[in-house]
Amino acid sequence: MAVFVTHSEQETVELGIKMGKLLEAGDIVLLYGDLGAGKTVLTRGLVQGLGAKDVVTSPTYTLMHRYEGRVPIYHFDLYRLSEPDEVLDLGYEEFFYGDGVSIVEWPQRLEYLCPEEYVRVKIEIVGDGKRKIMVDAVGGRYSRFEKELRNI
Ligand SMILES: Nc1ncnc2c1ncn2[C@@H]1O[C@H](COP(=O)(O)OP(=O)(O)O)[C@@H](O)[C@H]1O
Ligand SMILES: [Mg+2]
């Protein structure tokens, strides 16, 4: 596991940019952390690191936003999902297991639909402006990502 501590929103964005550069088509990033932890802020960096110029806003009501980087980026916020089957209506398989990178806030809501392999990011609020960001890879597909992460 790689552990980072950031001291401002901007530092979290910068970490996201570095991580985003390591992502490839088909990758899934699950973001764990309380409300206000910094999941959307980190996503802003990931999206930039993936080469998109779009302004990232929280897809709380629409469940997903799509951005165009060097690959398509699907940013989910599942906070309002009442049952996992609702992502089936969204056609989530096409995004998760397709040609782009998926980034998911509140992945707990997926329950039995949680993918088997993914990059896991946990963000903890440790103080005013301070965040502990823990990153590890679940599944062999991401061994390359984990290795590169050590050089960040
Ligand atoms: N080190 C930090 N990293 C990220 N966000 C921070 C940090 N310090 C303070 N913040 C603030 O915390 C909030 C995080 O919001 P957001 O990313 O929307 O949270 P989430 O998506 O996890 O609910 C923002 O208001 C941001 O300015
Ligand atoms: Mg958010």
Task: Give structural notes.
There is one protein chain. The protein is of the alpha/beta class. It has one domain: Rossmann fold, CATH 3.40.50.300. Helix content is 26%, strand content 30%. Helix 1 crosses helix 2. The longest helix has 13 residues, at 9-21. The model has no long low-confidence stretch (mean pLDDT 96). Magnesium ion (MG) binds next to helix 2.
In this entry the ligands are: adenosine-5'-diphosphate, magnesium ion
CATH architecture: 3-Layer(aba) Sandwich
Lateral strand order in the biggest sheet? 1-7-6-2-5-4-3
Briefly note the CATH topology name: Rossmann fold
| Fraction of helical residues | 25-40%
Beta-strand fraction estimate:
25-35%
Averaged pLDDT:
96
Q: Low-confidence stretches at least 5 residues in length (pLDDT < 50)?
A: none
| Radius of gyration from the alpha-carbon trace, in angstroms | 14 Å
- The number of helical runs is 5
Domain unit count: 1
Give the H and E element order: EHEHEEHHEEEH
Q: Characterize the biggest β-sheet.
A: 7 strands, mixed
Globally, the shape reads globular
How many angstroms separate the termini?
A: 13 Å
**In CATH, what is the homologous superfamily?**
P-loop containing nucleotide triphosphate hydrolases
Number of β-strand runs: 7
CATH class: Alpha Beta
| Structural category | alpha/beta
